[in-house]
């Protein structure tokens, strides 16, 4: 199962600009895999591993979460509001409720019924087993974790956090303020260390590396080993691809 989120602005003035990179990415994927996105009557959604879930924000439809099989069949509107950012865990999609209260929502894959499962005002939830990591909106945007089995809430760092991502061992997060930094801590909140000074975005994690970019700049893309000692270098393949 692939989750691809593509955001954009419906107004004509944003066409062809960086603000519509999400729309353009979805369109390119649909072209490459011959996925037909049309406005015919939506068919029933089937829960399978060959589907793309994505957000759209088009003037005629408004903002929706959609699902489509990679063969272009069984297109369906699941929710009539955006759910980004989101994560997938144990055959369910998790996201914060952006329309009402910020609570954690759960949408089983293949379902159209989202349930409110945790009454915390959160941003960027990542569910890992029974643990929810998120940015706490009412606690100066501190990075916290919540154990849903015990109900215990733990502040991992009180620093104001703009964004983050997690690996098997670490949490990589971007701090705000006058001296922003990209940092990492162990998943229990210990062993904080600086990865890079400055403001960064697009923290993407693979099995070997963490990739990130300076805020507002497309290139270069930087990388550091995901679980080893911090050693930041440029990702040359990304540089060549952008030429």
Rounded to the nearest angstrom, the distance between the terminal CA atoms is: 31 Å
Q: What fraction of residues sit in β-strands? A: 35-45%
Overall helicity: under 10%
Order of strands side by side in the largest beta sheet?
1-2-3-4
Q: Care to count the β-strands? A: 20
Largest sheet: 4 strands, mixed
Query: How many helices?
Result: 2
The whole-number mean of residue pLDDT values reads 82
| Cα-based radius of gyration, to the nearest Å | 19 Å
Describe the structure.
With 243 residues, this protein is mainly beta. Helices cover 7% and strands 44% of the residues. It has helices spanning 21-32, 236-241, and strands spanning 2-3, 51-58, 62-69, 76-79, 86-89, 92-96, 104-108, 115-118, 122-128, 131-136, 142-147, 152-157, 161-166, 170-175, 181-186, 193-197, 200-205, 209-214, 221-225, 233-234. β2 and β3 form a beta hairpin. The longest helix is centred in the first third of the chain and has 12 residues, at 21-32.
What labels would you give this structure?
243 residues; mainly beta; 2 helices; globular
In short:
This protein has 243 residues and is mostly beta strands.
Write the layout of secondary structure elements.
Layout: E1 2-3, H1 21-32, E2 51-58, E3 62-69, E4 76-79, E5 86-89, E6 92-96, E7 104-108, E8 115-118, E9 122-128, E10 131-136, E11 142-147, E12 152-157, E13 161-166, E14 170-175, E15 181-186, E16 193-197, E17 200-205, E18 209-214, E19 221-225, E20 233-234, H2 236-241
Parallel strand pairs: 1-2
Antiparallel strand pairs: 2-3, 3-4, 5-6, 6-7, 7-8, 9-10, 10-11, 11-12, 13-14, 14-15, 15-16, 17-18, 18-19, 19-20
């Amino acid at each position: 199962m692939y989750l691809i989120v593509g955001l954009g602005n419906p107004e004509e003035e944003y066409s062809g600009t960086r603000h519509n990179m999400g729309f353009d990415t979805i369109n390119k994927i649909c072209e490459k895999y011959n996925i037909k996105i049309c406005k015919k009557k939506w068919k029933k959604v089937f829960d399978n591993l060959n589907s793309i879930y994505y957000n759209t924000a088009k003037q005629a439809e408004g903002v929706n979460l959609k699902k489509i099989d990679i063969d272009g069949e069984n297109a369906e509107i699941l929710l009539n509001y955006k759910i980004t950012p989101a994560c997938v865990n144990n055959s369910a999609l998790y996201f914060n409720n952006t329309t009402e209260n910020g609570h954690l929502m759960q949408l089983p894959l293949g379902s159209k019924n989202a349930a409110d499962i945790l009454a915390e005002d959160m941003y960027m939830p990542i569910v890992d087993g029974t643990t929810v990591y998120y940015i706490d909106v009412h606690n100066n945007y501190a990075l916290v974790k919540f154990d849903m089995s015990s109900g215990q809430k733990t502040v991992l760092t009180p620093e104001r956090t703009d964004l983050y991502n997690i690996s098997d061992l670490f949490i990589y997060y971007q701090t705000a303020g006058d001296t922003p930094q990209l940092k990492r801590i162990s998943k229990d909140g210990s062993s904080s260390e600086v990865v890079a000074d400055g403001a960064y975005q697009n923290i993407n994690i693979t099995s070997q590396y963490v990739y990130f970019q300076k805020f507002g700049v497309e290139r270069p893309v930087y990388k550091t080993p995901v679980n080893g000692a911090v050693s930041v270098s440029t990702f040359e393949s990304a540089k060549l691809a952008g030429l």
